[in-house]
Design a protein that fits this description.
Layout: H1 12-23, E1 28-34, E2 37-42, H2 47-56, E3 64-72, E4 76-85, E5 90-99, E6 104-106, H3 115-126, E7 129-131
Parallel strand pairs: 2-5, 6-7
Antiparallel strand pairs: 1-2, 3-4, 4-5
Length: 158
């Protein structure tokens, strides 16, 4: 007897999340979606491998790093990466929490060259150290500037 199989439609968002979870079972801490974009909170140690997968997997093809920003939540520093697969205009947002006292994470500049300047800006204004960055130094402020002016505990010098 030939039974009709239900039609299962898998969106690219679901495919993207499945690829990440299959490759790195412990990477995703939380998952949601907003405005058609997949939002994944990641274990910080898994950011670079996940980004390499997003860029190198031909099914995914996330070829454009739109921006990197940081948020000071007083108890942690959160990094937010917005990435796009230009061919199909699919967006993904990756979020990672860092220890506020020692905000360090692997650089993604080996995956997207555009990260070089974006990571320098986050370093300059928030104090996040990007391990493996080819030229991590201040980009907006003088080299002898003390502190990180976008942190909530920053005191403006007289």
């Amino acid at each position: 007897m030939n039974e009709l199989q239900p039609l299962i439609i898998v969106t690219m968002t679901e495919l993207t999340e499945k690829n990440i979870r299959d490759a790195f079972p412990k990477a995703v801490v939380q998952s949601s979606e907003a405005d058609g974009a997949l939002i994944l909170k990641l274990n910080a140690t898994m950011l670079l491998p996940v980004c390499e997968l997003l860029r190198s997997n031909p099914e995914l093809g996330f070829d454009y790093l739109a921006d990197i920003t940081a948020i000071d939540w007083k108890d942690r520093i959160e990094l937010v990466y917005r990435i796009t697969a230009l061919a199909r205009n699919e967006k993904i947002v990756l979020r990672v929490d860092l220890d506020r006292a020692n905000p360090t994470i692997d650089s993604v500049s080996s995956v997207w060259k555009g990260a070089i300047f974006q990571e320098r800006e986050v370093y300059d204004l928030m104090g996040v150290v990007f391990t493996g960055h080819p030229d991590l130094r201040r980009i907006l402020l003088p080299e002898d500037w003390e502190g990180y002016p976008l942190r909530k505990d920053y005191v403006i010098p007289d």
